[in-house]
TrEMBL record:
The keyword Flavoprotein does not apply. Keywords: Ligase. The keyword Methyltransferase does not apply. Pfam families: Lactamase_B. SUPFAM superfamilies: Metallo-hydrolase/oxidoreductase. It comes from Brevundimonas denitrificans. Residues 35-149 form the Metallo-beta-lactamase domain. One of its GO terms (molecular function) is ligase activity. The lineage of its organism: Bacteria, Pseudomonadati, Pseudomonadota, Alphaproteobacteria, Caulobacterales. This is DNA ligase-associated DEXH box helicase.
Length: 344
């Protein structure tokens, strides 16, 4: 039986970036990438709470991510905030740092660190399919590519987004007397569902939970037009045949009782797992993920063909095995602090 792969980075790379209990540490730049607790200097890949936390001494991120963190944590979320646009390169200590689009949510980025002729790209969370609410993933050739593996099993092959939105609209037509209550994570997924509905020709007012309103405005500030929206307040009769978008937690809350016999939907990559849909009491599971599925993960590794693949979280065993069978040196880093949020 072969020995398990060594989880430690190669010596020639760990002087550039290496895993620690506080996250990915860059010695030459004296910063962490997406640290799970407050640190002196952090580079943040995107605004989801398992990657972007408040309390750091200094934060470097895209302008969009900084704006999202300001909305979520208050504008004093860090001692100092430094914006870095996609494609710009800056020296941080002894290393060069740049950010490239990750295709996950608005402002999401891959962070590439370069030093002594070597480069490592930490992709954060990413997806490869088109998303009308954020910049598309940009492949960055690097010696080491650090990938997530949230859906790192061959069973996870997500259907086309248009297919799932068409299922939602067919249900609205089929049950005009019922409200359609769609659970979607407040940052990224909710806005994506709204834009996909607009692209499918749905021009009606979409009603939203109050928890989404500030982030919806922020998306529109950055040029993502969401069309006519209104607060989900009023009598039951007002919502017959209407679509309401809310955080997943609201689906089981007293708040949801204001709607007439609602069809409960949930937009998540995990909705391909029937047991999860049943556990949540979801009548209309919508397989819409903001993460790469198995084919997107393997196609990305094939395209980039790095010297090493580091896997940060998720289903790392299958992806590591696939990489090794395809001639790529791979290891799991087992970083702590990243959870499966409902943005999946």
């Amino acid at each position: 039986m072969p020995l398990p792969a060594d989880p430690r980075p190669s010596r020639r790379f760990d002087s550039i970036l290496r895993p620690t209990p506080d996250g990915l540490w860059c010695p030459g730049g004296a910063f962490f990438i997406d640290p799970p607790r407050p640190v002196d200097r952090a580079v943040i890949t995107h605004g989801h709470a398992d990657h972007a936390r408040a309390g750091h001494g200094a934060v470097l991120a895209t302008p969009e991510t900084l704006a999202i963190m300001g909305e979520r944590y208050g504008h004093d979320f860090a001692g100092h905030a430094q914006p870095l646009a996609y494609g710009e390169r800056v020296m941080v200590g002894d290393v060069e740092l740049s950010l490239a689009p990750a295709g996950h949510v608005l402002g999401s980025a891959q962070a590439t660190v370069r030093q002594n002729g070597l480069s490592i790209t930490a992709s954060g969370d990413y997806k490869r399919r088109r998303d009308p609410t954020c910049a598309p993933f940009e492949p960055v050739p690097s010696d080491v590519f650090i990938t997530e593996a949230t859906f790192g099993l061959p069973v996870f092959r997500h259907p086309p987004d248009s297919h799932e939105i068409a299922r939602l609209l067919r249900s609205v037509q089929q049950f005009p007397e019922r409200a359609h209550l769609v659970g979607a994570y407040a940052l990224g997924k909710a806005q994506r569902v709204i834009r996909l509905l607009r692209e499918a020709g749905y021009d009606e007012t979409i009603y939203v939970h109050g928890a989404l309103e500030r982030l919806n405005r922020l998306y529109e500030h950055f040029g993502v037009m969401l069309g006519p929206l209104a607060p989900a307040t009023g009598s039951k009769a007002d919502f017959a045949g209407r679509i309401i978008i809310a955080p997943p937690s609201a689906l089981a809350d007293r708040w949801s009782r204001r709607f007439p016999d609602p069809v409960t939907a949930f937009a998540s990559g995990w909705m391909s797992v029937r047991a999860r849909a049943r556990q949540r009491g979801v009548e209309l599971p919508l397989v819409l993920s903001d993460h790469a599925d198995w084919d997107e993960l393997t196609e990305t590794l094939t395209q980039l063909s790095p010297q090493e693949v580091w896997i940060t979280h998720g289903r790392d065993d299958a992806l590591r095995r696939w990489a090794e069978l395809n001639g790529l040196k791979a290891r799991a880093l087992h970083l702590v602090g990243y959870e499966d949020e409902d943005d999946d």
